Amino acid sequence: LSLYRDQHFKGSRHEQEKLLKLSTTLYIGNLSFYSTEEQIHELFSRCGDVRRIVMGLDKFKKTPCGFCFVEYYARADAESAMRYIGGTRLDDRIVRVDWDAGFIEGRQ
Amino acid sequence: MNRRRAYSNIDDDEGGGDSMYGRRKRRRVSDNQEIEDRLESLILRVSEKSTSSLESNLEGLVSVLEVDLGTYRNKILRMLTDCAINMPEKCTIYTTLVGLLNAKNYNFGGEFVDHMVKTFKDSLKSCKWDAARYLLRFLADLVNCHVISAASLLTLLDNMVDAANEDSVPQVRRDWYVFAVLSTLPWVGRDLYEKKESALENLLIRIEVFLNKRTKKHHNALRVWSVDAPHPQEEYLDCLWAQIRKLRQDNWSEKHIPRPYLAFDSVLCEALQHNLPVIHPPPHHESYQYPMPWVVYRMFDYTDCPDGPILPGAHSIERFLIEEHLHWIIEVHHWERKDAAAHLLDFPYKSKIPLEYCIVEVIFAELFHMPTPRYLEICYGSILIELCKLQPSTMPQVLAQATEILFMRIDSMNTSCFDRFVNWFSYHLSNFQFRWSWDDWDSCLLLEEEHPRPKFIQEVLLKCLRLSYFQRIKEIMPETYAKLLPSEPNPTYKYTSEGAAALPGTTTAHKLVVAIRGRCTPEDMLNELKDLPNPRETSENDMTESAFNPLKIDVFVQTLLNLGSKSFSHTFAAVSKFHYVFKQLAESEEAQICILRNVFELWHNHQQMLVVIVDKLLKIQIVECSAVATWIFSKEMVGEFTKMYLWEILHLTIHKMNKYVTKLSNELTEAKEKLAKATESSSSDSEEETPGNPRRKKHGDGADKPTEEAVERMEEKLEAGYVDQKRLFLIIFQRFIMILSEHLVKCDTDGRDYDTDWYRWTIGRLQQVFLVHHEQVQKYSSTLESLLFTSDLDPHILDVFHQFVALRS
Fold first, then answer.
1. With contact defined as beta carbons under 8 Å apart, do B190 and B199 qualify?
2. What confidence score (pLDDT) does residue B786 get?
3. Where found, per UniProt (chain B) (predicted)?
4. Can you spell out the DSSP letters for B368-407?
5. What are the beta bridge partners of residue A94?
6. Neighbour-count burial for B97-115, b at 16+ CB within 10 Å, e otherwise
7. CA distances from B585 to B176, B357, B595 (A)
8. What is the mean pLDDT of chain B?
9. Residue-wise pLDDT tens digits, B78-112
10. Which of B290, B556, B571, B754 could form a disulfide with B172 if both were Cys (CB 3.0 to 4.6 A apart)?
11. Do A46 and B423 make contact, defined as CB atoms within 8 angstroms?
């Protein structure tokens, strides 16, 4: 687990940690605003079967704003993505990969 | 060095002598634990870099351990055995340590040998083949340390070669025993040669006889390249045998293994030796899984690395030892790519070898390993990126040179490795701004499009496109490469194109667009489609009720997916919303194939989209695996047949099927266990009912106890799953046989050479299906043999099947 935590998480820190340890969802940060779901899918499916990708959108403009969530079916695949993709490049930017407690509608 | 200094050394190293003392004051009870921990740390760290020499560290450790042998004997035995298994690269350091202990305490030496022998036997019984091999190597090296007599080791090795000569056991078992014996000889060959020359010769003759009798049907299936120029792709036992023969020629002297015991010769030669007990390898059991054979990967020789130290030759034992060690480093650190890269570059003998070349060769050996690589492909890609970052002055050049070599030899590369090469290279480029000197490969522009070289560039660009975007790919490529560029990944929607008015479905299609934009329901949608005429009903079979309406599917699928074409998410949302309509239309396999055909018609310029849509349709059970397989081999897809993405789709389909069957089988096993446990505990009900433990009882036969009927149903479901799986493989293999036979017969009658690019791709794909899914296909070997791969089949096709069977035989 790393230092990143969802600031809007409702519930105790402990609950959050517990969810993070079971999670199959990753928070992906430092993306280019132009990176698409397709590109992210291609890169992340190299670690396993991706269940879904939720693009982070700007609150007002509804355009991509540099982050997304990638959810896998299996925990092991998400772990591989942490290991092998975090710190490598997509669209020439070093992507950041962290655990996420699971995407809830509205967090975009 | 005395005991005290050894202790204080460690305290200094940890920088925490005081804190340790403090902890001891707080918790006296754990004194023993603490000393055990300290012993462990001393043993583990004796070989690490320190200011004093290894010899003095070993001496110091021996005097520490000698004192504690009384109280902590078992702990020390266990720890040293663990070191033998878990740190094979430090084998000689620990054998020296054991040798010195034996010299001081003969009884301990005996107990240690007993413990090792027991662990060795256990690992053979539990099929831990690597552990067994490292333990055997350790025992062998103990001969060098005067702990074990050479004669008793030879008896053990002889018994192992006996195991290799058993009849009616799988060859892979016999192979392993010979491999284990041969791979200990670099350590102990010299000593055996000096003390027991004729017995050693005898052992080698028996091994040679075994090797000459061995069948090597599997060899061709596992090769990365089909030709032996410039480097032969040797079968692993043949190669090791050649290396050992060369070692024997050199009087068993090698230049790689550090031997710290040589410095203690005077102490060790006075020690008394132990005899190994007679060890008989456990007999074969049908549940035993042995390592599969492999082919030694070779891409470099000394002429490739002109500066610096010379690369040991393919048949020098040093090459074997270096590679084994590098593979080992990857195994230990594959989970932390940064550590992996750092440890590879910090290889202990780096000044004596062209290290970058050795590392790159070993990493590609793993990536191209057949049938499948040990770890995820991206694991190797990410380690290579780290290596480039850590060694920017040399690594990128060596890697570029390797890429050049791989590209030049791609004509004979097997298809699975071709795919992995494409995937790695595109990923690597995407991490380095897609910079590559494409002009160097200009000559391939003159070749036929299906030739592996232009094909490679085409596929790499398609993968690069997926990791970036169309404009970027166009910009990075020289203009001369225009014909290899991917097309722009847009949908082709026929109902708005010119001439659409003449199409039968256009009016309905336009109505659908309005309806979908107006958020219509699935039922509304079916209503809209209702009036479309069925082109199939004009023919004589207009009475057949099950006849699906291809025009309905056409208009619906293409219009819906075109409206959702903005992104994967839009497409998925559209498919989910109208799941019911899909389900209604996809009533038969024919209809499912029709759906796939329409997806293709719309998206033929966007391969990745095709892959994810088919994946989605399988997941939400609109189409079945068998429909996808039939579609891939259909007439409409002939033009796509040699493209990588189509096989990506086929393999994801097979994977889905395999995963489903595995899941069902695991669930059944679990349910059966629960049922058995529940019956057991209910029979001993009364005894267990203690007031302190009521919850456990409830759990035992409570909610999750499956009923017998439920288990029966699961059994039926699994059976049905196996039937589907078998059918899928039968369809695939049957289609392969059909198109390959057709090609071979046609070439024969026309008097043309059958060995075309198309033929090579197709036979390669057939081989790939066998190898990638070998564990699952193995279940159906006998069915396949009796139904499809019969003796009257063309030998070219039959050969692929026989190679596959040989992998486990």
1. no
2. 96
3. Nucleus
4. T-SS--SS-HHHHHHHHHHHHHH-TTTHHHHHHHHHHHHH
5. A89
6. bbbbbbbebeebbebbbeb
7. 55, 57, 9
8. 91
9. 999 999 999 999 999 999 999 999 999 999 999 99
10. B290
11. yes
Q: Under CATH, what is the fold of the domain B494-531+548-623? A: 1.25.40
Beta carbons within 8 Å of B723's beta carbon, 6+ residues apart: none
Which helix (H) or strand (E) is A44 found in, with range? helix A37-44
DSSP B580-624: HHHHHH--SHHHHHHHHHHHHHHHTT-HHHHHHHHHHHHHTTSS-
Interchain pair A36, B430: CB under 8 A? no
For residue A53, the chain B residue with the least C-alpha distance is B569
DSSP letter string over B269-336?
TTSPPBPPPP--PPPP-TT---PPP-B------GGG--SSSPPPPTTSHHHHHHHHHHHHHHHHHTT-
Is A83 touching B (CB cutoff 8 A)? yes
Q: Is B471 on the interface with A (CB under 8 A)?
A: no
Q: Which two tokens stand for residue B30?
A: 């754990």
- Which whole-number Å values give the CA distances from A4 to A43, A80, A95, in the listed order? 22, 18, 14
| A12-21 residue pLDDT tens | 777 777 778 8
DSSP state of B20: H
Judged by CB atoms closer than 8 Å, whether chains meet at A84 and B608 is answered as: no
Q: Please state the domain extents for chain B.
A: 52-269, 312-481, 494-531+548-623, 625-678+707-808
Indicate the DSSP class of residue B442. Answer: G
Per-residue pLDDT at B381:
98
Is the Cα dihedral B717, B722, B728, B731 positive or negative? negative
Interface touch B382/A89, C-beta < 8 Å: no
Is residue B80 within 8 Å of B97, Cβ to Cβ? yes
Task: Give phi and psi for A31, each to the nearest 5.
Answer: -80, 160
CB neighbour list of residue B124: distance below 8 Å, 6 or more residues apart: B132, B281, B282
User: In the predicted model, is pLDDT for residue B246 greater than 90?
Assistant: yes
Q: Which fold has domain B312-481?
A: 1.25.40
pLDDT band for B808, please (50, 70, 90 cuts): confident
Task: Please report residues of B whose CB lies closer than 8 A to that of A89.
Answer: 430-431
Contact (CB<8Å) A46/B376: yes
Class of the B625-678+707-808 domain? Answer: mainly alpha
The SS3 of residue A97 is strand
Q: How far is it, in rounded angstroms, from Cα B112 to Cα B83?
A: 13
DSSP 3-state of A88: coil
Of A55, A80, A88, the CB nearest to B431: A88
Query: Which residue in the set B467, B567, B569 is minimally distant from A43, CB to CB?
Result: B467
CA A60 to chain centre: 21
Residue B760, both tokens: 């090579």
CA distances to A4, A6, A32, B361 from A67, in Å: 13, 13, 8, 37
Domains B312-481 and B625-678+707-808 share a fold: yes
Hey, what are B134's tokens?
């490292």
> Nearest by CB to A39, which of B376, B381, B468?
B468
> What kind and span of H or E run contains A66?
strand A64-72
Give B394-409 pLDDT, tens digit per residue.
Answer: 999 999 999 999 999 9
Interface contact A91, partner B, CB < 8 A: yes
Domain covering B52-269 assigned CATH 3.80.10.10 in the classification: no
Give the residue-averaged pLDDT of B303-321. Answer: 93
Mean pLDDT of B542-550: 67
The pLDDT-based confidence of A106 (bands split at 50, 70, 90) is low
B363 sits in which H/E element: helix B355-367
Q: Is B87 exposed, middle or buried (0-12, 13-18, 19+ CB in 10 A)?
A: middle
